Amino acid sequence: MEPGLKMPFARFTIMKVCPLQFESQFPPDLEAIKNYRLFDCHIGYDIASKLDGKLITVIRNPFDRIISLYYYWRELPDTTYGPGLAKRLTLEEFIECRDDLIILDAVNTQTWQIAFGTTLSARDSNAHLSPDQLLEKAIKNLEHFEVVGVTEAMPLVAMGIRSKLGLPVDAAMAHTNVTNSRPTLGEIPVALRDRIYSLVNVDLALYQHVLERYVAPNVLDANFAPPALAPVHSC
């Protein structure tokens, strides 16, 4: 799941929803948590595929995600880890920083999550892969998901969940972790967008694939306007 999206599956009681939120919290023996019916958390494919459930993922515009991450972290009261870094750095410095915390949450994060996982060990174990091989692995894994969508077209995600999983999900799915004050992509200087591109080049290719493979074919059937393609960096 894309962080910040809450899936309103009312049929699941709190006792059936896994309380774990991050991949680092999951035990090595997944049998201990397989009694849960819903996992709404930040985990990668390697763990999710072993939980014997139906997989749902929502990809976000990579450019927008980086800007949102920076300003969301700055709004949090925490002064350590990622939020602490965001508070100390300008947006330009944040984009140039290669601290492990920023690498995990900003550098092609969505592709790594779909291909393998959300930890540094997942990246280190597969560091030999080229960007094209990483993208190929993520695209191949998407074929095992029941529902694939983008945050810019959440009504289509809700439609997919209803039709493929039989769950009564409201098309107006609630967003949490919404940043109260941040610039739009159009307000970000082109030179800075070029620098962001270096962080999300593979994520952008994955996002475009999802738009073309999973979103566009459903647009006409749903009578829904397609989201704009992700902005391309300048040449």
Give a verbal description of the structure.
The model is unreliable at 1-6 and 229-235 (pLDDT under 50). α6 (109-115) crosses α8 (131-142). A two-stranded parallel sheet has the order 1-2. It has 235 residues and is mainly alpha-helical. The radius of gyration is 18 Å and the shape is globular. The longest helix has 33 residues, at 190-222. It contains ten helices and two strands; from the N terminus they run αβαααααααβαα. It has one domain (14-222): P-loop containing nucleotide triphosphate hydrolases (Rossmann fold, 3-Layer(aba) Sandwich), CATH 3.40.50.
Topology record:
Layout: H1 45-48, E1 56-59, H2 62-75, H3 81-88, H4 91-96, H5 100-106, H6 109-115, H7 120-125, H8 131-142, E2 147-150, H9 154-165, H10 190-222
Parallel strand pairs: 1-2
